Amino acid sequence: MNNPLIADMLKHVKLTPAEIDLVTACWTEKILGKGDYLLRNGDICRTDNFVLAGALKAFYINGDTGKEEILYFAIDLWWATDIDSFRKQQSSIYNIQALVTTRLLQINHISFEEMLKQVPALERYFRIILEGYTASLQRRIILNKVYDAEQRYVDFLARYPQLAAQVPLYLIASYLDMSAEFLSRIRKKQDIS
Predict the structure, then answer these.
(1) 3-state DSSP assignment of residue 20
(2) Average pLDDT for residues 32-44, to the nearest whole number?
(3) CA 20 to 30 Å from 26, out of 34, 112, 186, 188?
(4) Residues 6 or more apart whose Cβ sits within 8 Å of residue 95
(5) CATH code at 31?
(6) pTM attached to this predicted model
(7) What span, in angstroms and rounded, lies between the C-alpha atoms of 13 and 122?
């Protein structure tokens, strides 16, 4: 199986060869250059997006500080979509931008709904994906309330080593809700220990 999305689906649900062909036909490949936007604040998220290779950041601009606040990252074999905007076909409240050249598989909203009707097993697959996403958001909220900055960084490194290797430090700092300077001090402290 050379389609990573289909391979991921097959880890969770059984699909017939005809269903695999139908699903494959629903998705198209898109390439974003470094700095290109997948989605801009105010636009409607028209596609669900599976990252084949690359890295993206989802962020909003804090109205009080004017600073970019990172919501999430998406790297190889992860999803990059404003779920609420995609589901409701209403304006997004944040941006998604490529950090490096990024290859995606995309499906538009109408094709997505039709695919789910024709391949009911995919309802289970996307439920599993959403449960994982929700669990990671819940964990992040709890860690931000309970852990200090150093503990959040250590947890981030343990859970997402591939992100730490691909994403600039100042973006990781924003994701962890601290300044880049403070994160640099934490890293220096860990190097000394």
Answers:
(1) helix
(2) 98
(3) 34
(4) 37, 39, 40, 41, 58, 59, 60
(5) 2.60.120.10
(6) 0.90
(7) 7
- Give CA–CA dist 153/39, Å, rounded: 28
Q: With CA atoms as reference, report the closest residue to 55 among 136, 139, 165, 159.
A: 165
| Angle subtended by helix axes 121-146 and 109-118, to nearest 10 | 120
Are the C-beta atoms of residues 115 and 84 closer than 8 Å to each other? no
Mean pLDDT for the stretch of residues 33-54: 97
CA 123 and chain centroid, separation: 19
Amino acid identity at 56: L
53 forms beta bridges with 103
Domain boundaries, position 52: 4-119
Is the distance from CB of 54 to CB of 101 less than 8 angstroms? yes
In a domain, 154, yes or no: no
Query: Which residue type is seen at 97?
Result: Q
As for how many domains the chain has, the answer is 1
Query: pLDDT, tens digit, for every residue of 142-193?
Result: 988 999 988 999 999 898 888 888 888 999 999 998 888 988 888 888 776 5
